[in-house]
Amino acid sequence: MRTPLALVLTARMKGENPYFEKIKSSQFRDEDFEKRIRTDSEKRLRLLSQSILSIFVGIAICMAYLATYGVTSESLAWSGGDIAAQRARIVDRKGRILATNFETHSLYAEPHRMINPAAVAAKLTDLFPELEYDRLLKDFTGKRKFIWIKRKISPKQQQAVHDFGEPGLFLGPREMRIYPKGDLAAHVLGGATFGKEGVSAAEVIGVAGVERKLDSVLRDTTSTKQPLVLSIDVTIQEIVEDVLHSGMQLFNARGASAVLMDVHTGELISLASLPDFDPNERPRFPVSGKPDNSPLFNRAAQGVYEFGSVFKIFTVAQSIDLGLVTKNTMIDTSAPVRVGPFSIREFRNRNYGKISVSDIIVKSSNRGTARLGLLIGKDRQRDFIEKLGMLKPLELEINEAKKSQPLFPKNWGKANVVTISYGHGISITPVHLAAAYAAIANDGMYTAPTIIKQNNAHKSYRVMSSEAAKDALNMLRRVVTDGTATFARDSAYSIAGKTGTAVKPKATGGYYDDKVISTFAAIFPDDDPQYVLVMTFHEPVGVSDDKPRRTAGWTAVPAAVEVIGRIAPLLNLTPRVALTTQSSLN
Amino acid sequence: MKIFSFVVAIMLVFALALWANQESYKTRIALKELRKTQQDLSKSYSRLDALRTEWAYLNRPQRLRKLVELHFDQLALRPLRAQQFGLVSEVNFPKEEFIIAFEVGGEKLVAMFSSEDILQ
Predict the structure, then answer these.
(1) What are the residue ranges spanned by the domains of chain B?
(2) Which of A408, A407, A463 is nearest to A440 (CA)?
(3) CA–CA distance from A97 to each of A93, A175, A241, B68 (Å)?
(4) Measured on CA atoms in the order A276, A179, A90, A203, is the torsion positive or negative?
(5) Nearest partner of A387 among A327, A450, A439, judged by Cα
(6) What is the DSSP string of A517-533?
(7) Averaged pLDDT of chain A
(8) How far is residue A552's CA from residue B3's CA, in Å, rounded to a whole number?
(9) What is the three-class DSSP state of A370?
């Protein structure tokens, strides 16, 4: 460092060494410098030690937290093992298994590892007769390196494959969906199939019914420990299907369906459609022909039909609800009702004359309901039918239900008012019908039907006054005691209901003469309504008599009485028979 | 003093390290056991599941109905009918007699009742 000239000059003048000053000053500066450095590094060291200390304190806090609150690590937490990966089980309302998973194996081949492909193909065709030898041999000798042979094999077949000792055959673990009850409630459950397939696992996906509609819920691995509880009762479902099956044979019917609904909760205790299928061996979707020719077709919650006279009670209930008539108002049914070119006739051209509103239901008078329908008018009629849920598809937890869009006239004219008043010109599903009857049985409160077990009523609202519902129920009871459903009169459980025998519409227009849909919509027990049963036979012909019997009174009513007689004890209903035997003893 | 505290601290560190090491081994053994238990549990669950499935399959109504038909001559099982219900008053209960012994003032007494007396 150069010494400033002024310092040198003054030092020289004093006779001192000018560089001594310089050394002194530089000494001072070095001391200054050292001091600065020391304080700086002290600061740094302090900062460093503080930060290290704070890290250690942090770790200590973390450890204390882990020790006290016990956050379990991944390896410690038990996820339920293999169960967690499974699809949720489906059980009935009493916990009986309807659908579950079963561990099985799939069989696949890697032909390039095979020593003698022809022998393997021969052994496999021996074990699985449905495989073709030529096809297998072609696959094994071709260029493919991976071939699925069977998607599911039984433990016995698995052992047989092991016994082959073939290096090119492999077994992969598989979880399959199994329906232990076979074809019971097949249309409710639907079925499942394999989605994405791997050698070590395969995805199970629902293809129809509840399995398809609630697929995401069933596959949700976080909730799989809880099975899906349906409102169906296995025992009751079996009785219903059994009676439907016998009825179909007895009446030579093409198909049949039944819906049993709890009127307070909207739960469907039974939902049956025949012919049915086994969801374990689900048939393919039909590619040609009418869809309802396939057993996959759900006649209870998918197919829409004109039900005829069972509709009359809605017209009568509405006209009482609106205060247009009372149950005793006399209506003249002798004069023909003319709408445009049509003249409304009674069943077999009868003439009931002047009858009360109740008798319109008891005698099932077309002209009577037509007159009431005209009193109500098209707008009010449409609104009421809409409130009963009969203009929109069912919101049921079954995939097919979304196809249940009812058919009704776009332009609701006077002629439609008349035909709809007695159940023609509007097509709905039996579940729609059951829900509307349940509204009458449930004191005028409509409850949306559901297939999932409920703890209390779901989505219910008033559609008619309690008085109108009571009057309608009394009329339905009179149908059984004095009307078209007298087969139900002597049942041990008091039944109210209405029959309907509707001619089937032709695809080409007009109606068949000899093809009918016979329906009995029943409410029981009638003194304290709890259940609605809608029983339908498609194209029944009873030939036990001298003349063919097609009407509901001869087909659906006896079948419904049989069902109610057998299921009522299971539903904890008290029979009237106890009182009758008592009186006979005294 | 300073040296003494150093020695103590170092010994403490060694002791703690030894303890931590032992704990670590114990934890590893426990984890191994846990995993084995989980595997067993998992196996048991799937076995239970298979048994449940089998039970559901064996109890399918179609099979039970066939069995009822097959053994009808011995069991004669029929669907439950309303006629099978009755009132409690219709049941002919067997007559029962009760004997009650008691003491009044050192004297032993015996009383006899029949079930009909009690009901009245």
Answers:
(1) 2-119
(2) A463
(3) 10, 17, 18, 22
(4) negative
(5) A439
(6) EEEEEEEESTTS--EEE
(7) 86
(8) 108
(9) helix
Nearest chain B residue (CA) to A175: B46
Residue A79 CB coordination number (10 Å): 12
Do A67 and A129 meet the contact criterion of CB atoms below 8 Å apart?
no
Residues of chain A neighbouring B59 (CB-CB closer than 8 A): 96
As a whole number, mean pLDDT of residues A92-114 equals 87
Q: Based on the number of CB atoms within 10 Å of its own CB, is B110 exposed (0-12), middle (13-18) or buried (19 or more)?
A: exposed
Within 10 angstroms of residue A33's Cβ, the number of other Cβ atoms is 11
Whether residue A228 contacts residue A235, with contact meaning beta carbons closer than 8 Å, is answered with: no
* Whether this model's pTM surpasses 0.80: no
According to the model, what pLDDT value does residue A498 have?
94
Please write the tens of the pLDDT for every residue from A378-429.
999 999 999 999 999 999 999 999 999 999 999 888 888 999 999 998 999 9
Q: Using alpha carbons only, how large is chain B's radius of gyration in Å?
A: 38
Q: Give A37→chain B minimum CA distance, Å.
A: 30
Interface contact B90, partner A, CB < 8 A? yes
pLDDT higher than 90, residue A455: no
Query: Which chain B residue lies closest to A225 (C-alpha atoms)?
Result: B45
Please determine, for residue A224, whether its predicted confidence score (pLDDT) is greater than 70. no
Number of Cβ within 10 Å of residue A420's Cβ equals 26
Helices vs. strands in chain A: H and E counts, helices first: 18, 18
